[in-house]
Amino acid sequence: GAGVSQSPSNKVTEKGKDVELRCDPISGHTALYWYRQRLGQGLEFLIYFQGNSAPDKSGLPSDRFSAERTGESVSTLTIQRTQQEDSAVYLCAGGRSLQETQYFGPGTRLLVL
Amino acid sequence: EDQVTQSPEALRLQEGESSSLNCSYTVSGLRGLFWYRQDPGKGPEFLFTLYSAGEEKEKERLKATLTKKESFLHITAPKPEDSATYLCAVQAPGNQFYFGTGTSLTVIP
Fold first, then answer.
1. What are phi and psi of A85, to 5 degrees?
2. Which residue of B has its CA nearest to A10?
3. Percent of chain B topping pLDDT 90
4. Is the pLDDT of residue A57 over 60?
């Protein structure tokens, strides 16, 4: 496709369950960022990947959060043992490099009951 | 510690009433300042990137400017379709991005 896609678009889960969120960036975009957007708040940086370099995980809020990306393809964000405070929209964005414009996906809306 | 502060939080304008949105930042070694538009239920849509003080960018009714401490997004003669939340983000030397909480703009016909 022409844009960044994310799946699922919506996810409702029970507290304590694990969830996996997926991001398909635009082909050729080597940089990929994950953000969390809580209701009424700004985007919160979580992690970024740049090509095959080690990711910058400095924004991950706890060890329950992890993300993977193989090469320049799909990325997955995993949240283990979900808590209610994890409820948010999770956005991914890609770019041709870390210094260039980021193109966002539509987000995954996560609700933890 | 707030890295990026946007004001006002919300702004209501009559169609054709020009105004400005503010983004102030405290990040040192700024690599770039970005403006995005976000419509409800959608991801942010890129508008502008500014890299150095004094730089200006324009697109239709929007004009972004940058100083060493802040950026302004000027909206000239807005239309109802300009209604959205406008987000400002700064890129730090480590390549992390820090976003403000946005300005929710409503343009009334």
1. -70, -5
2. B41
3. 82
4. yes
pLDDT at position B48 is 92
Name chain A contacts of B44, Cβ cutoff 8 Å.
Answer: 43, 91, 93, 104
The residue ranking higher by pLDDT, B95 or A63, is A63
CB A37 within 8 A of CB A88: yes
Nearest residue to A88 (alpha-carbon basis) of A57, A65, A58, A63? A65
Average pLDDT, chain B: 93
CA gap B94, B43 in Å, rounded: 23
- Between positions 90 and 109 of B, the ones with CB within 8 A of A are 91, 94-102
**C-alpha to C-alpha distance for B34 and B30, rounded to whole angstroms:** 11
CB–CB contact B44 A4 (8 Å) = no
